[in-house]
Write a structure and sequence with these properties.
Elements (H helix, E strand, L loop, with lengths): L9 E6 L2 E6 L13 H19 L1 H5 L15 H5 L1 H17 L7 H13 L5 H11 L6 H10 L3 H9 L16
Antiparallel strand pairs: 1-2
Helix pairs in contact: 1-4, 4-5, 4-6
Length: about 180
């Protein structure tokens, strides 16, 4: 916690295997989430998933052709040049969408959030979202399923799907919050 920062800000950084999240809590009691839990969750998911992408380097590397598909997307340059970053961010967003909200959250709202992420350039979010639906019915743990989920990505099919995406003009670093 940093009490000297702007209460509207959160700062997350990782240096190698060290992950840091600095939150500036809001003194206003009317703020619904003064500790910014979605930002903390986002960084924690990276903490869990980044090492998995490194462990499956060759499987992730075979997805490199997808980087051509996001050249015109409004993404940070790092996502356009590092397939590992793009893959992990798409998976993080899919997990956030899949796990945010409650049982009354309508599936069309979730699918709209997936579509929004894809239009921002996170082109594998839809694939991962669909894979997570199947994974939830499987007794295997995620560490076990991760390699299979990555290995099942059809690069040509994803390139075709990405070529049909009408990207938005600017990508918002907005985190998923469904009601």
């Amino acid at each position: 916690l940093d009490y000297l920062g702007d209460p509207t800000e959160t700062n997350a950084r990782n240096y190698g295997n060290d992950y840091y999240v600095v939150v500036f809590p809001s003194p206003d009691p009317s703020v619904p989430d003064p500790l910014k839990l979605p930002q903390i969750r986002h960084t924690y998911l990276h903490y869990l998933l980044d090492p998995m992408a490194e462990k499956h380097f060759s499987t992730v590397k075979r997805l490199d052709p997808l980087l051509q598909s996001v050249k015109r997307a409004p993404l940070d340059e790092n996502f356009k040049t590092d397939i590992g970053l793009l893959v992990t961010e798409c998976l993080v967003r899919a997990i956030e969408i899949r796990s945010t909200g409650n049982k009354q959250t309508a599936e069309p709202m979730r699918l709209q959030a997936v579509d929004d992420a894809v239009k921002q350039g996170y082109i594998l979010t839809k694939y991962f979202y669909t894979a997570l639906v199947s994974f939830e019915k499987d007794p295997a743990g995620f560490r076990t399923a991760y390699g299979d989920i990555l290995g099942a990505i059809d690069v040509k099919q994803q390139e075709k799907a990405a070529s049909e995406v009408q990207f938005v003009r600017s990508s918002e670093p907005e985190l998923v919050q469904l009601s």
